[in-house]
Write a sequence for this structure.
């Protein structure tokens, strides 16, 4: 009897101990970073689609009228767990990572020169939160952008320190990337963007092409008819030069007409000349092919007798067809 009583007490004690252990397990904290109980501070990085980087990505044009576009990013930091106390985070630029970025993208981006970047690098994740109450703010002033040569640039940003938390080992870097072009060509202008008026008289205008048209004649571009044309089949890169017979001042843009949007031009490198010998590059024009009329707009008006279009991309795999060529003054 005594032995049975002792055995029952032992069973009861075992059950109590199991219950305590189970309750203790239930009280343990749960963590949202692969079971890591250490709070980690991290940056959200951009993504890579093939060799293309999609993150803090900007485009800037250096035009005769000044900088168009901006480089301005606001980047928060995060923690994997709610902060027990305020977490002070410092982010700095790290140009040693330019090569890492280029290896991932297959690009040739270069670092921004010292002194060009404005950076507010100290951030706070408040107690009880997982996101910073403020954002790292990075910008490059227009006067600084104007001093840069055309090209692609990258600003690598790294978390350099954090208190009351650890810095993530594999998510402590992000990149700000931008492309700078020197151009006098407005991007993808529509009819409503054009200024000035179409020049009505095109007497004596001629054109040449460094390829043999498949059909039609280049002179058809100056007959005021949209049902006459020249075509190139199959399409290929080609250079068309228009001679307007005399120098025209304050040209604000160009209008071309294609037989339909199917056979339109996508991009063309534009240059101008007053004598046919000395040429001024105006930039690469991106043409909006949502209608049969396509436009090139100049940020700053140009004086020219000759306008050259080096056609580099087109919409159809079948042919290019042009029917009319006009300018705005």
């Amino acid at each position: 009897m005594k032995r049975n009583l002792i055995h029952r007490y032992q069973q009861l004690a075992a059950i109590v101990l199991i219950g305590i252990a189970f309750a203790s397990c239930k009280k343990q904290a749960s963590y949202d970073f692969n079971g890591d109980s250490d709070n980690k501070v991290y940056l959200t990085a951009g993504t890579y689609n093939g060799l293309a980087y999609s993150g803090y990505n900007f485009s800037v044009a250096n035009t005769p009228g000044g900088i168009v576009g901006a480089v301005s990013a606001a980047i928060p930091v995060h923690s994997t767990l709610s902060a027990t106390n305020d977490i002070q985070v410092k982010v700095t630029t790290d140009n040693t990572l330019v090569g890492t970025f280029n290896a991932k993208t297959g690009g040739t981006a270069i670092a921004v020169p010292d002194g060009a970047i404005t950076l507010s690098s100290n951030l706070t994740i408040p107690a009880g939160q997982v996101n910073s109450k403020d954002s790292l703010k990075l910008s490059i002033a227009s006067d600084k952008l104007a001093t840069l040569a055309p090209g692609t640039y990258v600003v690598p940003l790294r978390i350099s320190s954090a208190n009351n938390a650890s810095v993530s080992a594999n998510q402590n870097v992000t990149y700000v990337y931008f492309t700078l072009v020197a151009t006098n060509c407005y991007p993808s202008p529509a009819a409503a963007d054009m200024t000035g008026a179409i020049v009505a008289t095109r007497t004596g205008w001629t054109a040449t092409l460094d390829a043999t048209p498949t059909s039609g004649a280049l002179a058809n571009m100056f007959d005021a008819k949209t049902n006459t044309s020249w075509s190139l089949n199959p399409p290929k890169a080609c250079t068309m030069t228009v001679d307007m017979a005399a120098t025209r001042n304050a040209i604000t843009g160009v209008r071309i007409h294609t037989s339909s949007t199917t056979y339109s031009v996508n991009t063309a490198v534009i240059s101008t000349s007053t004598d046919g010998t000395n040429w001024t590059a105006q930039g690469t024009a991106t043409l909006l092919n949502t209608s049969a009329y396509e436009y090139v707009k100049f940020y700053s008006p140009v004086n020219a007798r000759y306008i050259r279009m080096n056609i580099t991309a087109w919409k159809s795999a079948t042919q290019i067809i042009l029917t009319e060529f006009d300018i705005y003054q």
Observations:
- DSSP finds three helices and 24 strands in the chain.
- The helical segments are 2-27, 98-105, 142-145.
- The domain at 191-328 is CATH 2.60.120.260 (Jelly Rolls).
- Residues 1-33 have pLDDT under 50 and may be disordered.
